[in-house]
């Protein structure tokens, strides 16, 4: 209706009634529309039905991306630390929250070295500096010490717009790289370090994967072979699979406290030359999952071997602060390489890695790390920077956290006493828990644990009876996966089977972190002992 008696309905009867109504002062009539179908029901014509069937046929066509069509290298990747056992632990946690009864009240995730998740307190000074960088208005607060403010201002001056929210150079903030170089020089007793050889990374993992990516080439028998320790941290096997490189295993000597033997390196290398081109040697020191700390002589032998065989060295040194056993000391590969003389120091290509995630800091979530790469060909250096620039830059808050690891308070500064007290408390506590774990495991029949010289894990060897091995096969599981799954289901303790790290055939292990608080760790170890004894009785 136009409101003036001009009807748009097209119906005479409505127009007459509407006009009369308007004359009487009533609102205009509206034409009655068809009543819509009830919600959830649709009225279809036969033509519409036929069209819908055709559309449905198209909608159910095969997916473009399937297990058969996906990148086979990605499908080959396995990462045991967050594998099937952890997924099962997550399912059990959900069941506990729903009130489903279990023989335990909580799942203890001893599968991963996540210090803060296990109750470790953050280092105050590190958090203060990152907080100041994140919210610079706090720089005016009297609640923060001046040495923390000084570091925060320096970091912010290196950021675009004085903000942690700005992109940085792909290699990382320059002043932080300078601090890393100074730290390396102090750590190694005066061995020079060049900030231009420092690359800040998203944790150590990012640096390791990046270096491997630039090293892998060739096809067939000339495809790059990467030598890794067995047992190993699964990052290495995962990265090698993703890059379609060739994994070359060398075995650590369990009977000799997981020592690295150069004769074993030579055996592994010579055998690998028949099917690939071995050109990378990876070392984890202190060891993960095995916890051994390499002595100076061993490192010298490894460097000489790499020099002799023209191998690129990767030194994973993220646990360099975690050394507990008397008589053990951390030696960096960079320091030993320098002290072996110019013939080695000027020629052996070496990438070393460190992180905020381990040590006494345990700041896993910040994803801070660095790598130092020396003796790199100048043209390759440009290629490395190009590759890093694709991911723009590492997390800037992680770069700030890394700066505090390498540039902590020094004697005479306001925060030094609290910082050193917190640092020593964490490391002393870890040393106590390392000894406790070793001692308690070695009292259990059918379990043997080497000394935990460093890092933050135990990797005990477990005896699994043949009857249990047969049952594991029936479930299409590795025997130690079967064992660990039973342990989880009966006690709520989540550990990682040794098969996820690699082990000699016929031997079985699991990896367990020593990070839980002392009393909780004792309870955990008692539960493992009781479970293992029952397991042996059941399958004897």
Q: Please outline the major beta sheet.
A: 7 strands, mixed
Distance between the termini: 93 Å
CATH class of the largest domain: Alpha Beta
Mean pLDDT: 89
Structural class: alpha/beta
Say how many strands there are: 14
EC number: 2.6.1.2
Cofactor: pyridoxal 5'-phosphate
Pathway: Amino-acid degradation; L-alanine degradation via transaminase pathway; pyruvate from L-alanine: step 1/1
Organism: Hemiprocne comata
Layout of strands and helices, then pairs:
Elements: H1 12-23, H2 46-59, H3 72-76, H4 84-97, E1 108-109, H5 124-134, H6 146-157, H7 174-187, E2 198-202, H8 203-215, E3 224-230, H9 235-242, E4 246-251, H10 262-272, E5 277-284, H11 296-309, E6 312-316, H12 333-339, H13 342-345, E7 350-355, E8 368-374, H14 378-389, H15 396-406, H16 416-441, E9 447-448, E10 457-458, E11 461-462, H17 466-474, H18 479-491, E12 493-494, E13 496-497, E14 510-513, H19 518-539
Parallel strand pairs: 1-12, 3-4, 3-5, 5-6, 6-7
Antiparallel strand pairs: 2-8, 7-8, 9-11, 10-14, 13-14
Describe the fold and architecture.
The protein has 540 residues and is of the alpha/beta class. It folds into two domains: 73-107 and 417-539, Aspartate Aminotransferase, domain 1 (Alpha-Beta Complex); 124-406, 3-Layer(aba) Sandwich (Aspartate Aminotransferase, domain 2), CATH 3.40.640.10. Helices cover 43% and strands 11% of the residues. It has 19 helices and 14 strands. The chain has helices spanning 12-23, 46-59, 72-76, 84-97, 124-134, 146-157, 174-187, 203-215, 235-242, 262-272, 296-309, 333-339, 342-345, 378-389, 396-406, 416-441, 466-474, 479-491, 518-539, and strands spanning 108-109, 198-202, 224-230, 246-251, 277-284, 312-316, 350-355, 368-374, 447-448, 457-458, 461-462, 493-494, 496-497, 510-513. Strands 2-8-7-6-5-3-4 form a seven-stranded mixed beta sheet, sandwiched between helices. A three-stranded antiparallel beta sheet has the order 10-14-13. Strand 5, helix 11 and strand 6 (312-316) form a beta-alpha-beta unit. The relative contact order is 0.13. The model has no long low-confidence stretch (mean pLDDT 89). Keywords: Aminotransferase, Pyridoxal phosphate, Transferase. Its EC number is 2.6.1.2. It is an enzyme of class 2 (transferase). Pfam families: Aminotran_1_2. InterPro entries: ALAT1/2-like, Aminotransferase_I/II_large, PyrdxlP-dep_Trfase, PyrdxlP-dep_Trfase_major, PyrdxlP-dep_Trfase_small.
């Amino acid at each position: 209706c136009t409101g003036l008696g001009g009807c748009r309905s097209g119906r005479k009867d409505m127009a007459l009634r509407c006009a009369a109504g308007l004359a009487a002062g009533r609102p205009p009539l509206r034409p009655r529309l068809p009543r819509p179908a009830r919600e959830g029901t649709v009225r279809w014509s036969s033509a519409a039905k036929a069209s819908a069937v055709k559309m449905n046929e198209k909608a159910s066509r095969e997916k473009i991306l399937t297990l058969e069509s996906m990148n086979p290298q990605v499908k080959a990747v396995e990462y045991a630390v967050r594998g099937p056992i952890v997924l099962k632990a997550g399912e059990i946690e959900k069941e506990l929250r729903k009130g489903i009864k279990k023989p335990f009240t909580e799942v203890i995730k001893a599968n991963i070295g996540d210090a803060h998740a296990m109750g470790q307190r953050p280092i105050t000074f590190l958090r203060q500096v990152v907080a100041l960088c994140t919210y610079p208005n706090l720089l005016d607060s009297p609640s923060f010490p001046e040495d923390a403010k000084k570091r925060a201002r320096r970091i912010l001056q290196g950021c675009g717009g004085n903000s942690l929210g700005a992109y940085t150079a792909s290699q990382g903030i320059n002043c932080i790289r300078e601090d890393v170089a100074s730290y390396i020089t102090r750590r190694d007793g005066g061995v020079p370090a060049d900030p231009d050889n420092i690359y800040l990374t998203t944790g150590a993992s990012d640096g390791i994967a990046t270096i491997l990516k630039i090293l892998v080439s060739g096809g067939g028998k000339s495809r790059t072979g990467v030598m890794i320790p067995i047992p190993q941290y699964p990052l290495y096997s995962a990265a090698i699979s993703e890059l379609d490189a060739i994994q070359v295993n060398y075995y650590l000597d369990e009977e000799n406290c997981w020592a690295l033997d150069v004769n074993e390196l030579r055996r592994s290398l010579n055998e690998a030359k028949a099917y690939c081109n071995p050109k990378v040697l990876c070392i984890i020191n202190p060891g993960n999952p095995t916890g051994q700390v390499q002595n100076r002589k061993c490192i010298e032998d490894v460097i000489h071997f790499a020099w002799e065989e023209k191998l690129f060295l990767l030194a994973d040194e993220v646990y360099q602060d975690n050394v507990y056993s008397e008589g053990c000391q951390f030696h960096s590969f960079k320091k030993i390489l320098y002290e072996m003389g110019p013939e080695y120091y000027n020629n052996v290509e070496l990438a070393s890695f460190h992180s905020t995630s381990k040590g006494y800091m345990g700041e896993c979530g910040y994803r801070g790390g660095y790598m130092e790469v020396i003796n790199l060909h100048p043209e390759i250096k440009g290629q490395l920077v190009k590759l890093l620039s694709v991911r723009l830059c590492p997390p800037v808050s992680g770069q700030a956290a890394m700066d505090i690891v390498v540039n902590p308070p020094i004697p005479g500064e306001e925060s030094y006493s609290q910082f050193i007290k917190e640092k020593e408390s964490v490391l002393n506590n870890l040393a106590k828990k390392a000894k406790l774990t070793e001692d308690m495991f070695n009292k259990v029949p059918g379990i043997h644990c080497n000394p935990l010289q460093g890092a933050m894990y135990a990797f005990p060897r477990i005896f699994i009876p043949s009857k249990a091995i047969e049952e594991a096969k029936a479930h299409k599981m590795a025997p130690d996966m079967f064992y660990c799954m039973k342990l989880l289901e009966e006690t709520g303790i989540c550990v990682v089977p040794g098969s996820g790290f690699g082990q000699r055939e016929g031997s079985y292990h699991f990896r367990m972190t020593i990070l839980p608080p002392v009393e909780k760790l004792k309870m955990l170890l008692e539960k493992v002992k009781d479970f293992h004894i029952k397991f042996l009785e059941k399958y004897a």
